[in-house]
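Students often ask what a 'structure token' actually looks like in practice. Rather than answer in the abstract, let us consider ATP-binding cassette domain-containing protein, a protein of 637 residues. Its sequence is given first.
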Amino acid sequence: MIILRDLSLRRADRLLFEEANASLLPGQKIALTGANGCGKSSLFAMLLGELQADKGDIEGLKGQRIAHMAQDVAATDVSAGNFVLEGDAPVAKLLGGLKLAEANDDFEAAAKIHTQLEACDGYAAERRALQLMLGLGFEDSDAEKSLGSFSGGWRVRLALARALMMPSDLLLLDEPTNHLDLDTTIWLQNFLKAYRGTLLLISHDRDFIDASCSAVMHIEQERLNSYKGGYSDFERQRALRLEEQRASAEKHARRRAEIEDFVRRFRAKATKAKQAQSRLKELARMGEMALAHEDSPFEFRFPEPPRGRDPLIEVRGANVGYDNSPLISGADFSLRNGDRIALLGRNGSGKTTFLRSLCGELPLLAGERHSSEGCRIAYFDQQQVDTLDLDSSALLHLQRLTPDAREQTLRDFLGGFDFKGKRADAELRPFSGGEKARLALAILAWQRPNVLILDEPTNHLDLDMRRALEIALLEFTGAVIVVSHDRHLLRSTADNLYRIAEGHLSLFNGDLDAYEGLILRGSDDAQDKVPAKAEGAGKQRSTVDRRDQRRAAAETRAQRRPLEQAIKKLEKRMETIQEQLSAIEAALAEPSIYELEAKTKLTDLLRDQGAHRAELEELESDWLSQQESLEAMIEQG
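Now compare that with the structural description of the same chain:
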């Protein structure tokens, strides 16, 4: 178990968190959430030993095997397959030593290494590395290519594969889905379900958190608060906590009324399609969860768009691709006022290419494209950020678009994207990727489009900004077509799903749950692609009788079982105490508790806090002792 005890950390003149306490239990899967810049990555750096706390300690890291995902991978001549394989450093070293011994005809050294490889299942390492690459969207032939031949986004995927390859007790993943498509995101989600170590995950993808994590640690107001369950559970618990802390929630009531009114209006028009019904449920739930995001700095709307003539955009018999090589053939598609469409398909199937052709950026290889009079398209992709003038301010960008607009009107609009006061006047160069993406969205919204074409709009956006974007899209009366790996965004904004598969575009008759099931049922395809060569080494394994070993292992497990049960009981009690402490600390954060008439209650709370902390320390000490005994027994066995 890893224990964060009274941690305080300051970067420059900013306090990130103070007296933070939390426990990471073995095998627990935790999402670390909070606004951009609150200290999530700094906490990762502390766990990795790259950053020291100003105060407090992290206990239990000694002896832990920690794997983490690098954010930058240099473009070297190392092959992609070897780069991933080296994630399992001990096995990679053995395989390298084996090649050297065989090249030198050192048969004695080679025999010794073969024994070591068999003991650690090292012969399967190359196959595991290839399976990870296939699962993350690579082809068989990519294993032989150099790192330098891949783009930055694909090198980040290789960094993820390398982290997953490493045998670990603690796995740290920082935004692992940012460069993944939906299909690959679902594969990763399934992989993490089977991971046996402790997972600490930074992600702004709420559906991914719900599917992968059983707890949330949320950084807010320099505190670290723990919640049980996924992100949806966190929203409910935080909403209750905030509701208890506020006697009045006028903003909540107004916001919920607006969303409920939208739900009523939408319900009258909804079709019986499964995706439309899923969206209705999502909209209703959003109203219930509004309070959990009441303190969000983001609140904006797309200006009311002019209505164009239907169909706004239409393609017939379209071949889409590059250099006379179509990715999609014979596509028929039309977009009308009010349409809300999500585009699905594997990485490389042609989703982005189709969007670029749809908005007229890329000419069709064959077929026809028409856009109606009055069609005003806003196209967002990650390259939008690259078009920003980094030496100018957010305000100046809008002023260049509409020189006659009142400055206060522009400032009010930018304020909804959290560019307030001096922030609206600051030059963009030092802004984070998320801030630049927010501004790119603001610029598109300001131009009053009636067609929004969005390609992965949520990359680099935190959860509060994603929610604000969802609500803005719900209220947008124009047409929307979106590609995203964020399933929550797709559920709340799309009425119809289109899928690109095997070079064809077609309506998908189902909802996102059905699509996820389709992807998971096809997950064995990647294994079928593994070439026979990768299996060859495994055939060198000895076929000796394992019955005696299995019998000995069973006896050892029986001896360990009482210790393991005692440890589980301690972990369950520690979790209960931690939850009770969180409730006490929430009550102590109430200003009213320090008024004279609440003196008795304050005394009781402080007494209970002290007693709970003392019990927690005793339980943690007992847990560490039992764990050491178990580890010693494992080493002897």
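One point worth highlighting: The longest strand covers residues 14-24. Ask yourself how you might have guessed this from the sequence alone, and why that guess would often be unreliable.
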